[in-house]
Structures are given as C-alpha cells and as structure tokens.
Amino acid sequence: MSDESKPSTRIVRCPCCGKSARYDQTNPARPFCSQRCKTMDVAAWAEESYRIPAKESSPGEYETDERD
Ligand SMILES: [Zn+2]
To answer: What fold does the segment set 8-46 form as a domain?
Structure first.
C-alpha cells in the first residue's frame, strides 16, 4: 500500500518555457505552466507540421523512390 492519501502536488517542467508547472487538477493547462504556454506550444506544433512537407535538408538521407 502506498500512501496516496497524501495530497502531493506533482511538479513537472513546462515543455514550452521550462518553468515548474503543477501537474494536477488545479492546472488545466498541464503539463504546461500556463494556458499561454499551452496555446503557444500548440501553435508552434501546428506551424511545425506545416513545414514538414517543405523539407529540404540533407538530400539523399531520406530517400524515397515513390515520387510522382
Ligand atoms: Zn510555460
């Protein structure tokens, strides 16, 4: 039996800014430190996914023979 009755707040590092963030129900933006960081990260992720098709780095390393 572990003592889970103890209301210990888990602290994680915000993936966006690296600050300490609460990982519990009081933090709706978890694992981010704030809603702002969460929004920013999602925006960055979306932007990143847009760039993926336009990949033009190191030709030959990622060769695909199925081109039209
Ligand atoms: Zn943050």
So the answer is: Erythroid Transcription Factor GATA-1; Chain A (3.30.50)
% pLDDT > 90, the chain:
46
Asked whether the beta carbons of 14 and 21 are under 8 A apart, the reply is yes
Q: Residue 20, SS3?
A: strand
pTM reported for the whole predicted model? 0.56
Is pLDDT of 58 > 90?
no
| Segments making up each domain of the chain, as ranges | 8-46
- Rounded to whole angstroms, the Cα distance separating 11 from 47 reads 28
CA of 26 to the centre of ligand 1 (A): 15
Q: How far is the CA of 3 from the centre of ligand 1 (A)?
A: 30
34 CA distance to ligand 1 middle (Å): 6
